[in-house]
Structure prediction request, 220 residues.
Amino acid sequence: MKLAPSLLASDLADLAGTLAVCARGGADLLHVDVMDGHFVPNLSFGIPVIQALRRRTEIPLDVHLMVSNPDRLMDDYLAAGSARVAVHWEAAVHLDRLLTHIRKGGAKAGVVLNPATPVELLEDVLPQAAFVLLMSVNPGFGGQAFLPRALDKARRLREMIQKGRLSVEIAMDGGIDRGNIAQVVAAGVDTCIVGSGIFAASDPVAMMSELRIRARSETV
Prediction:
């Protein structure tokens, strides 16, 4: 299981401190939510922040584009230092072309699905993706409660990947914490994106360790 702390839930006035915490906790990825106030009803990080993060850490940046027209600034997101870029199925008109563009730009290409979007819609594009990000909350705000039906989506997607003999990772984002991470991993999720579940803890580094232990638990 890969653990990706979501920077949106951290102390935004001290991103340097957040990077240090993530490094001490052994984060596999740093999840960066880019929101445009149009595709989702909120604004967050942009290209300058990605550039600044890249200069201050060696942890790969996992960039989630919650934006309309994700192809418009794609070259800038790639040049800023994104190691992984995920675009929404709901926002990308020419998804196959865009995934190819991301790969050619040197990043791993991912597709994101909102809670109401069925995984079966990915059948024809799944071979072009390095990973699929399943939203377990409605995107746009941090701190929301986990939607349990996301577990069934993860299981169905895992079946599709195995049936196609594909090398595609499954990520999940939204409401994951110490109480449900074992269930999430048991459903077939490879990468857990955790925001408040880490940064709301009194000791985020210790919580990252606890999450890894709980993810390995067989009690679900």
About this structure: The first helix runs from residue 15 to 24. The chain has a mean pLDDT of 95.
